[in-house]
Write a structure and sequence with these properties.
- The chain is an alpha/beta fold and 406 residues long.
- Helices cover 34% and strands 26% of the residues.
- It has 14 helices and 18 strands.
- The strands form 3 sheets. A 9-stranded mixed sheet has the order 3-5-4-12-13-14-11-15-18. A 6-stranded mixed sheet has the order 6-2-1-10-17-16.
Length: 406
C-alpha cells in the first residue's frame, strides 16, 4: 500500500486486541478505543484453552508454550455422596483471562490504546468512517471494527434489533485458594475439570493460576462455575437488585450483590452439593453472579464497519470457545482485507463467512445448556434433557470444539 490505512477498533478487550494485532501484521495502522476509564484487569477468571488459541498467538508471534496456564489432565464427575462416578482423559491447559489479556497488551503499542473513549456515533462516507466519542473527540479511518463486547455500542447503533436473549439460568462464579483447599479436595479433584450434575443444574471447577498469574503448586486457585435456573420475570430482577434497592440491567458488580442473595446461594450449596464442593463454596470469599445470555447477529458487515467477537455473537460459556471465535474473527477479517482491495467488499465477504460460523457456535451452546431447567413442557423433552445431562456426554462435549472440526 502506498499509504498506510487506518483501522479504528472500538473495544479494548480480547477481541479488539486480536483485531488490532492481526491487522497490524497486514500493514494497517490500528488504534484501539476503550470506554473504561481504567485498564482492563481482573475482568475474568479461568479460560479452558484449545489448540486454536495457541495457533492464533503463534501467528501473532506470541509464545504460549511457557507459563501459559495450568495443565488439566482429565475430567471427572462426582456423585451426590462426593464419590467419583465417571472419568474421562482430556488433557488441556486452563489459563486466566488476565494472563491472555496481558500477552496481547504487551504485543500492542500502548500509545495507540486509548481509555475513556465512549462511542456515541459512527458516520460513514465513500472514502472513510468517523467515530464520535462522548468527550467530544473523534477519530477517522478507512475501517471501523466493533469489538466492544456484549454491550456493544457499535451493534446497538447499526443493528438495534439484535439484543441479548436470556437463557433461563444464571452462573455463580468464584475462586478459592489452592492452599486452603488442600484438606478439602483430593489431588485428582483439584487437577481435573470436575463436574457435579444435580437435576436441572451443573457445577464445575478446575485449576487456574493464582494471584499475579502464580503457577506454582500450592499457590494456584480453583475456578468454580455453578449454573442454576432462574425465572427471568421474577428471580433475575431480584438477583440483580443491590442492597440499596437499585436493580441493575443484565449484570451486577460482585461487591453490590445483596447479602440476602449470597446467603441464599450458600444455603443452596449446603443443601445440594457433595461434601467437598460444599467446603469449596465456603472458601469462595467473593462470589459473582452472571445471568447467561446469548445473541446472534444476522449481519456482521455494514459498509466500512464490521462486528467481531462478542459484539457479533454472544455464546453461552459451555462451549468454551468465545476467545477462539474472537481470534478467528480477527484472522478472517485480516484475510478478507488481504484478498479485496475494496474495504466494503472485504467486509461483506468476511461477514458472510463468519455469520455462518457464529450460528454454529450458538446452536451448539444452546444444545449444551438445554437441560439446565427445572420444568419441561413434555416427558419427551424431559427424557431428551436427561440424555444431554449424562456424565459421559457432559464431560465429552463441554469446552470442546469438535463440532467445528467435523
Amino acid at each position: 500500500m502506498s499509504k498506510q490505512r487506518r483501522a479504528l477498533i472500538i473495544g479494548g478487550s480480547m477481541s479488539g486486541l486480536f483485531c488490532a494485532l492481526y491487522l497490524r501484521r497486514l500493514g494497517w495502522q490500528t488504534s484501539v478505543f476503550e470506554r473504561a476509564p481504567v485498564p482492563l484487569t481482573g475482568r475474568g477468571a479461568g479460560i479452558m484453552t484449545h489448540p486454536e488459541i495457541r495457533d492464533a498467538l503463534g501467528e501473532l508471534g506470541l509464545d504460549a508454550t511457557h507459563d501459559f496456564g495450568v495443565p488439566v489432565g482429565g475430567r471427572l464427575t462426582l456423585g451426590a455422596s462426593g464419590r467419583v462416578i465417571a472419568r474421562q482423559p482430556c488433557p488441556q491447559i486452563a489459563t486466566s483471562w488476565n494472563r491472555l489479556f496481558a500477552m496481547l497488551m504487551e504485543a500492542f503499542d500502548a500509545p495507540h490504546y486509548h481509555l475513556r473513549r465512549d462511542l456515541r456515533a459512527v458516520t460513514q462516507a465513500a472514502d472513510g468512517v468517523v467515530a464520535h466519542f462522548a468527550d467530544g473527540s473523534s477519530a477517522s479511518g478507512e475501517l471501523l471494527i466493533g469489538a466492544d463486547g456484549f454491550r456493544s455500542s457499535v451493534r446497538s447503533e447499526l443493528l438495534p434489533e439484535a439484543r441479548p436473549q436470556y437463557a433461563g439460568y444464571v452462573a455463580w462464579r468464584g475462586l478459592a485458594d489452592e492452599a486452603a483447599l488442600a484438606s478439602v479436595l483430593s489431588r485428582e479433584e483439584f487437577d481435573s475439570l470436575t463436574f457435579y450434575l444435580p437435576p436441572g443444574e451443573q457445577f464445575l471447577g478446575y485449576p487456574v493460576a493464582g494471584p499475579g498469574n502464580d503457577l506454582r503448586p500450592g499457590h494456584r486457585s480453583w475456578n468454580i462455575v455453578w449454573y442454576r435456573p432462574a425465572d427471568e420475570a421474577t428471580e433475575v430482577p431480584r438477583l440483580l437488585t443491590d442492597e440499596a434497592g437499585q436493580t441493575h440491567e443484565l449484570s451486577i458488580p460482585p461487591p453490590l450483590i445483596s447479602r440476602r442473595v449470597v446467603n441464599e446461594m450458600r444455603a443452596a450449596a449446603e443443601r445440594l452439593l457433595p461434601p467437598q464442593l460444599r467446603a469449596v463454596m465456603r472458601l469462595v470469599d467473593q462470589p459473582f453472579l452472571q445471568p447467561i445470555y446469548d445473541l446472534a447477529s444476522p449481519r456482521m458487515a455494514f459498509g466500512r464497519v464490521a462486528l467481531a467477537g462478542d459484539a457479533a455473537f454472544v455464546i453461552r460459556p459451555h462451549v468454551g470457545g468465545g476467545i477462539v471465535k474472537a481470534a478467528q474473527d480477527a484472522a478472517a477479517l485480516a484475510a478478507a482485507l488481504a484478498a479485496h482491495e475494496d474495504v466494503a467488499q472485504a467486509l461483506a465477504a468476511y461477514g458472510a463467512a463468519r455469520v455462518r460460523i457464529g450460528q454454529r457456535y450458538i446452536e451448539q451452546a444452546r444444545r449444551l445448556g438445554s437441560y439446565l431447567r427445572y420444568s419441561f413442557e413434555s416427558e419427551e423433552a424431559r427424557a431428551e434433557a436427561a440424555q444431554l445431562a449424562e456424565p459421559a456426554r457432559v464431560m465429552r462435549e463441554t469446552a470442546m470444539l469438535d463440532f467445528l472440526r467435523a
